[in-house]
Design a protein that fits this description.
Sufe protein. Chain: A; four-stranded parallel β-sheet; about 20% strand; 9 strands
């Protein structure tokens, strides 16, 4: 009888210990090897900032890892936070604006980075380590990941509906991306403008940035479709036509862009 009671006690303790171990997160040390292979063991943690360094078109076209925020390397950081001078070998003298890095990347958290490969992530990791961040990990390339948080691109996963479109007019590329509802009304929209070398004109020009921001807010508040927007931008009497963004140099480009996003009859 005593032996049976002892066996039952050992069994209960074993089960409780097993459950406790399952729910206890693995601690993260600065010298740990964290890659796409074991990433799922470290997901959904408040103390980690998960960062996708690819451009937005890669997210929509190829897919992404759920829980990672977009901080595009080329659009948000390159030639703004640092000037690499066409190399990925980090030098402290390449840093242009530390505040941009500390604004995008939380100094109190562990940072997980990925892009299409390791080159961009490794460079950002070197910058962050130089600025005093302690736990920064390069996970690898997106296509190496086969875990449970993978969201495929090409519209195989949607919350509402996403759109992504670009067009080149007069050697400048206009980009629009965001979300719209089933009735085609736009709920989120972002514009960008790039020069011939692929550099974001919006990110480097405060006046243009403010103009596009005004247009984006106007569109969402007005609850319009792309078909509505196309008509409004072509109507000289509409309030859209009076906005700075469309009255200076960008009217033709925006018209062409919105035209491609219209729902054709």
């Amino acid at each position: 009888m005593r032996l049976k009671w002892l066996f039952s006690l050992i069994l209960i303790v074993s089960i409780l210990t097993s459950c406790t171990n399952k729910n206890t997160p693995i601690p993260i040390n600065f010298d740990d090897e964290i890659t796409m292979v074991n990433l799922d063991l470290y997901m959904e943690r408040d103390e980690v900032q998960y960062v996708d360094l690819r451009n937005f078109d890669a997210k929509f076209a190829a897919g992404y890892i759920d829980g990672f925020e977009m901080i595009p390397f080329f659009d948000y950081l390159d030639n703004r936070a640092f000037d690499r001078n066409h190399t990925y070998m980090f030098d402290p003298n390449q840093i242009l604006n530390e505040d941009i890095m500390t604004t995008y990347f939380d100094q109190e958290k562990t940072i997980f980075l990925y892009a299409d490969g390791c080159i961009r992530a490794d460079y950002v990791r070197e910058v962050l380590l130089h600025l005093g961040y302690e736990k920064v990990f390069t996970l690898g390339g997106y296509f190496e990941y086969n875990g449970d948080f993978n969201i495929l691109g090409d519209s195989s996963y949607e919350i509402g509906r996403v759109f992504y479109q670009k067009v080149t007019v007069n050697h400048q590329t206009y980009l629009a991306y965001g979300r719209f509802e089933m009735d085609q009304t736009i709920t989120e929209i972002h514009f960008d403008l790039f020069d011939e070398d692929g550099n974001s004109i919006r990110q480097s020009n405060t006046e243009i940035d403010v103009s596009f921001d005004t247009l984006e807010s106007y569109i969402v508040k007005d609850v319009v479709t792309f078909n509505d927007l196309y008509d409004l931008l072509n109507n000289e009497m509409s309030p859209y036509y009076q906005l700075d963004t469309v009255t200076i140099n960008y009217h033709d480009g925006l018209i062409s862009l919105i035209n491609k996003l219209q729902v054709k009859p």
